[in-house]
Amino acid sequence: MRPNIDLDWAIHGRIKDYAEASGLNLSEAYTEVLEAGLEALETQDQQ
Question: What is the pTM (predicted TM-score) of this model?
Fold first, then answer.
């Protein structure tokens, strides 16, 4: 279940473009982007 959040349409568009370029469906693209972002934040916290 996805959270009900407001995303800027520009961000959604970028993720949609990423999905198309990577051969992913939209759910897979959102998952990859969110996981990569969380990993980057966790790495920053450890430095």
Answer: 0.80
